[in-house]
Amino acid sequence: MKAINKHIKTKKNLRTACLELQQRLADMSKAAMEQAQESANAEKGTMEDRFESFREQCQLDRNMHAKQLQENLSGLLVLQKMDVNRECESVTLGSVVVTESQRFFISISLGEVKLQGKSYFAISTSTPLFKAMYGKKQGDAFPFRDKMHQIVEIY
Question: 48-81 vs 2-42: helix axis angle to the nearest 10?
Fold first, then answer.
């Protein structure tokens, strides 16, 4: 019972860390989008034709940041809806997978997340690595990049 509570606490802490990181990314995207829009709006005057391409570039930048913001908000939604209050017996969304060499948190793609001195790699369900390990159970092995990986623990 203690191990289950510890695992659930770890998953909750991982989700919280991922939520904080994803929120920072969303905030940065929003700020960059607003800055690009302000730059486009600020360039007016008698030489409008000269600045038209500048404004167009600012608008393209704004649109790129708006798309990033939308992706970040979608990631936040996935994290918020993810059930981390249960132990997982196989690799699925919300599980922590420990292999002989790394720890993975199946959530959204955020890269390395440090928690209590340990590294976890937050990966999404659309990555090739997840697809290679999907549905596997503790003790199973899976091939990835010409190497076999052994699943030591799933929770």
Answer: 170
Angle (CA) 57-60-64 rounded to 5° is 140
C-alpha 128/C-alpha 137 separation (Å) is 18
Q: What is the pTM of this model?
A: 0.84
- Candidates 95, 103, 108, 99; CA nearest to 119 is 103
CA 125 to chain centre: 10
Cα separation, 60 vs 38, whole angstroms? 13
Tens of pLDDT along 46-66? 455 555 677 788 888 989 999
For residue 73, the one-letter residue type is L
CA 50 to centroid of chain Cα atoms: 41
End-to-end CA distance of the chain: give it in Å, rounded: 13
